[in-house]
Amino acid sequence: MKKLICVKEMEEFIKTGKTKFYVTSDMIITPSAKDLAKNKSIELTTESQGCELKSNINLNLSDSDLDSEAMLKLFKAMMNKGLLQEVLKCLKGENLPYESECDVNGLKIVRGNTVKLDVFDTGNPDANAHYQELVSKEESKMSAGFLVIEKSRFDWELTYEEIDYVIEGTLTVELNGKTYTAHAGDVLFVPSGSKVVWGSPDKAKIFYATYPANWADLL
């Protein structure tokens, strides 16, 4: 049964002096409670408390006590407080090339301005292209990410379907002897089996989504 957070509960929380309210998957917050939190500058977040490593576990351990028995005691205490799984999630994602926020049901928010791009191997050493996959085949039947092409062009054959949204710059697509040009705000659909030449006369930044997600395995 989900826990209902009303104005009364929010008022009690405000009295603690804390400024961040952690919303778990078993909570339902009423609109009036949300309004109160907003008026009092309380941040509502689904980010895990474990990710900030702010645990209230008090094990009274000194450095000399850190043996296998003490470690077992620590893990048991973390499990009882529901923190172990959250810490493991944080450790798993700490090397990701972007900051993100996730929910247990699969919801994922990627902070776009934190994304670090990798070199995109186009097969053309003269191409200046970078990308970063943000949603992978391990997470979804679709994949999605950012692609940047700067003053270059390269041949590409699609063995998957792709939808692109031009965030900034100019994107060119050569297909069947004709060049198509897309500008910021434009959306493209490229069907599977297409042999195209991607390019940009300036610097194009694109958000892409592909189906199926394992597009790299199909090349």
UniProtKB/TrEMBL annotation:
Pfam families: EutQ
Entry-linked InterPro entries: EutQ (IPR010424), RmlC-like_jellyroll (IPR014710), RmlC_Cupin_sf (IPR011051)
CDD domains: cupin_EutQ
Protein name in UniProt: Ethanolamine utilization protein EutQ
Species whose genome carries this gene: Clostridium paraputrificum
